């Protein structure tokens, strides 16, 4: 396990704020994704018959198209006003929309308005998620010592597996204490409503964190860009493309569990107990957390790009054995498959904050990191569960899903060879006008 000795009190406060905030954001985001497979198909889209599940998963993906919009807005304001203000705003947006989802009546009560309201609230979640990650990642990395940016940057990353762990844990608990009928009627709403408590806690922590010292330097020198988005795409568009493709390869694979596909496949096709499947995913979330921290730690030793490449190779090698073990219908094999699946996933996720932060100059860093992340999420995770469900349905085999994920992984692996590692490079505003230099010429 990576050691965190030597981290100052201020550093601990920063990484805690980044981690707790992303945990809450993704808890909110994931309970929707999981319920899309377990609940929403029957409660909100049943009128569509056999296509209800596919459309339910599609609503998970719809919000991804609004992530770039959230990234543009938060990126612009984050590069102009600071990282801290955006972290508070995005947390509020996610929390309010999540609580309201828990209050939306189903189709039987208000007809067509039910799925419409559900989708609109999911859009707000997408706007929030698009702006959240960039601020949390940059706050952690820009506060970090140069030699430990990978590890510090991994802390907002582990908010995702922790959020997945909490989302599956709360749903597993609710499932265990309710009958199937009660769960579908009202039990699934409890995790959404509990988000109120988490949001209050997150706001208290984030409000006490100091602004990024790198951004403060830019503000003091009055070096902020008036149009960071224009500057980003004029001078650094290759970086945006490379960052998006790297994340797309990780995100497509990750959304097999975070998007609810594995949970749905294991319960509906393999007829495994819902609570058991959720617990299996929780165990894999712990493995993902550990491998993500390990990815950040390793990135400080061998470099960000090399860590990505190791992770993508492991991801690719395990792709088809993963589905073979899942198909055995054994709970033990499901757990083993998911845990080993999480190793490559973590190694291609842990270094991301440091890599993105070192890619861009300070004046466009929030915009660049957030937009790369958001576009990668659209290309990779947006419709990964929907594509997986459609491939499985049309071909009759889950191995078609493995083929799709293998292709996405190869795209990420190939992209990594065109990305220059800038481990330990200065994050100072002195780089404000530096040309894009982290994508090698093809």
Would you kindly provide a written description of the structure presented here, covering whatever features stand out?
This protein has about 450 residues and is mainly alpha-helical. The protein has a single domain (about 10-430), classed as Growth Hormone, Chain: A (Up-down Bundle). It is about 75% helix and about 0% strand. It has 20 helices and no strands. α1 (about 10-45) runs parallel beside α7 (about 150-175), α1 packs antiparallel against α9 (about 190-205) and α12 (about 235-260) runs antiparallel to α20. The radius of gyration is 21 Å and the shape is globular. Mean pLDDT is about 85; it is low at about 1-5 and about 430-435.
Largest sheet: none
Q: Element order, helices and strands?
A: HHHHHHHHHHHHHHHHHHHH
- Tell me, rounded to a whole number, the average pLDDT: 85
Give me the Rg, rounded. 21 Å
Short description:
This protein has 442 residues and is mostly helical.
Give a quick set of tags describing it.
77% helix, mainly alpha, Growth Hormone, Chain: A, single chain, 442 residues
């Amino acid at each position: 396990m990576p050691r965190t000795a030597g981290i100052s009190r201020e550093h601990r406060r920063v990484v805690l704020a980044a981690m707790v905030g992303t945990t809450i954001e993704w808890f909110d985001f994931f309970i929707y994704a999981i319920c899309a497979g377990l609940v929403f198909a029957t409660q909100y889209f049943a009128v569509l018959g056999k296509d209800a599940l596919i459309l339910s998963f599609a609503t998970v993906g719809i919000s991804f198209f609004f992530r770039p919009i959230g990234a543009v807005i938060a990126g612009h304001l984050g590069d102009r006003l600071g990282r801290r203000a955006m972290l508070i705003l995005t947390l509020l947006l996610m929390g309010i929309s999540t609580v309201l989802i828990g209050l939306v009546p189903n189709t039987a009560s208000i007809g067509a308005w039910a799925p419409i309201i559900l989708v609109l609230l999911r859009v707000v979640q997408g706007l929030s998620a698009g702006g959240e990650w960039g601020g949390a990642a940059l706050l952690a990395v820009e506060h970090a010592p140069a030699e430990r940016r990978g590890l510090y940057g991994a802390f907002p990353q582990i908010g995702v597996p922790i959020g997945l762990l909490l989302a599956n844990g709360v749903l597993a608990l609710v499932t265990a204490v309710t009958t199937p009928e009660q769960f579908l009627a009202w039990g699934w709403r409890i995790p959404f409503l509990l988000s109120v408590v988490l949001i209050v806690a997150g706001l208290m922590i984030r409000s006490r964190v100091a602004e990024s010292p790198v951004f403060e330097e830019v503000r003091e020198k009055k070096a902020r860009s008036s149009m960071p988005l224009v500057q980003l795409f004029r001078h650094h568009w290759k970086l945006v493309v490379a960052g998006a493709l790297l994340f797309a390869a990780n995100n497509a694979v990750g959304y097999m569990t975070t998007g609810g596909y594995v949970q749905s496949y294991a319960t509906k096709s393999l007829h495994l107990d819902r609570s058991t499947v959720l617990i299996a995913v929780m165990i894999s979330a712990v493995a993902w957390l550990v491998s993500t921290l390990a990815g950040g730690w390793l990135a400080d030793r061998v470099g960000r790009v090399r860590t990505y490449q190791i992770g993508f190779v492991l991801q690719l090698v395990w792709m088809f054995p993963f589905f073979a073990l899942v198909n055995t219908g054994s709970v033990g094999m499901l757990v083993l498959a998911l845990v080993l699946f999480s190793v490559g996933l973590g190694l291609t996720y842990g270094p991301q904050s440091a890599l993105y932060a070192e890619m861009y100059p300070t004046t466009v860093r929030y915009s660049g990191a957030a937009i790369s992340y958001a576009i990668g999420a659209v290309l990779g995770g947006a419709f990964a569960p929907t594509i997986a469900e459609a491939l499985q349905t049309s071909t009759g085999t889950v191995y078609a899903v493995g083929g799709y994920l293998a292709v996405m992984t190869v795209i990420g692996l190939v992209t990594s060879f065109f990305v220059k590692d800038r481990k330990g490079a200065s994050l100072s505003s002195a780089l404000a006008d530096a040309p894009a230099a982290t994508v090698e010429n093809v």
